[in-house]
Fold At2g35280-like TPR domain-containing protein.
Amino acid sequence: MKFKKTKRNSHGSTIEYLPSDLLIEVLTRVATSSFTDLFNAKLSCRNFLEASDDKFIMKNISIEKFPAIPWWQVKDEVSSFLKACKESGNPEALYRQGMMEFFSWKKVESGEEYLKRALEMEHMEASYVYGIILLCKGGESNEEQGMKLLNAVKKSRKLGECRKKTKAFILSMWIRNPIVKCQELVNHHAKTCGRRNNGGIGGKRGWWQWIDDREDNEDKDVEEVNYCEGCMWEDEVSLFCKLFR
């Protein structure tokens, strides 16, 4: 008895029958974890290559392996890629643009707008930096919103990571618009707060430093030093501002 041989579908022909929405979903998941894996997927077949240009993928792609500040001349295709990420609303790209415009190019309003767009997509570093900026501006509304953003970062248990990444970014670029009002802000709260005790500016700071390996013990330590919320974040602002000195 003879059996008829059947031709197995190749990898490429199988993908041809998948709907475009599914291809985009697959590539988006790949892109969020690794740009390299997305690049390899694009090379694997024509269908992936065509789907990879979708804005949803560019919005979610990870660009953390790209230098925050490309001091050297980048290739045209890299520059075009990063520009496409920003135009597609990629939160990391928006955050980087906001940092450059606010701190280096002295374009305060547009810099803040980019940071706000990034934090609206739950970008932690953007939330952290914009929260600091609002506290430095002062005013009841700004301070309330700023502490709300910072508390959300702290609640996510990514405060230490935000500090590290923000510090590295700031130290990598030319600063032309430093934040200079932090000391006035801290002094203002210190005069009205009765819970500052020995912590904070001018006293024994205790745990509240940029010590990232104690992130897991924050709640216990805050209770021990008896800081109020205002004292805690104003000291954070002061530490942040020291990066510009």
